[in-house]
Amino acid sequence: MKHWDQFLGPYKQAVEELKVKLKGMRSQFESDPDHSPIEFVTGRVKPIASILDKANQKGVPLDRLEAEMQDIAGIRMMCQFVDDIMKVVELLRMRNDFEIVEERDYISHKKASGYRSYHVVIAYPVQTIHGEKKILAEIQIRTLAMNFWATVEHSLNYKYKGMFPDDIQMRLQRAAEAAFRLDEEMSLIRGEIQEAQAFFSRNKEMQQKN
Ligand code: 0O2
C-alpha cells in the first residue's frame, strides 16, 4: 500500500494542479466579453482496482504503468457546444506548462459503442522533493450531452462488464444518437442561448451591486 501511495502521489498532485489551472481558464472568461467555451472542469486519479483491471486487460506489466497507462491522472472539461471543444483544444495547445503527446478525436471518429469525446494526452511536469517528474495525464473534452451519455454508459458497463443485454445495447445506441441530435439542435440556437445567458449574468451582477 505504501508503494501505491508513493506511485500515485505525483498523479494526485498533477490532478489537483491541473484542476486549478484549467478552472482558472474558465474564470478568465468571466471578465471577457467572449462566451466561455468551458462549462466546468473535473478531475480524478484512477482508483487502484481500475488501474489493475485495465493493466490486466491490456497486458501492461506493472513496471510499465508509468510509461503506458495514459489516464491514471484524468481531467474532464465540459463544454456547452460542440464548436467549443476545438476552442478548448486550441487553448490547451497554446499553453507552455505541459507538452501534448497525443490527441485522439472520438468526435469525428466516434467509437463503436457510440462514445464521443476529444482526448488530449499530456506530459505534465510535477515538482517533487526528489526533483521534477513528468507524468502522463489524459484530458477529455466533451459537451454536456456527450458527458451525460458517457457517464450513464460507464455505469451500465460496470454493471454488465461490457456484455450488454440486446435491449440495453439498442437503447444505448439510440441514446447516443439522441445526444448527437441534442448537440446539433443546441448549436443551431447557440446565438439565442448565449444572448439569454449574457442577459442573465448581467442582471445577476446588477443585483449583486445593488
Ligand atoms: P475510466 O473509469 O473512465 O478511467 P481503450 O480502453 O483501449 O478504449 P485507451 O487506449 O486507454 O482506451 O484510450 P482512450 O479510449 O482514449 O481512453 C480511455 C478512456 O476514455 C476510458 O477510460 C473512458 O474514460 C473513456 N472511454 C473510452 N471509450 C469509452 C466508451 O465506450 N464509453 C465510455 N463511457 N467511456 C469511454 P477507462 O479506463 O475505460 O475508464
UniProtKB/TrEMBL annotation:
Pfam families: RelA_SpoT (PF04607)
Keyword Transferase: yes
Domain RelA/SpoT: 43-164
Keywords tagged on the record: Transferase
EC category name: transferase
Pathway: Purine metabolism; ppGpp biosynthesis; ppGpp from GTP: step 1/2
InterPro entries per the UniProt record, alphabetical: GTP_Pyrophosphokinase (IPR052366), NT_sf (IPR043519), RelA_SpoT (IPR007685)
Keyword tRNA processing: no
CDD domains according to UniProt: NT_Rel-Spo_like (cd05399)
Enzyme Commission number, as recorded: 2.7.6.5
GO molecular function: GTP diphosphokinase activity
Signal sequence annotation: none
Record-given protein name: GTP pyrophosphokinase
Listed SUPFAM superfamilies: Nucleotidyltransferase
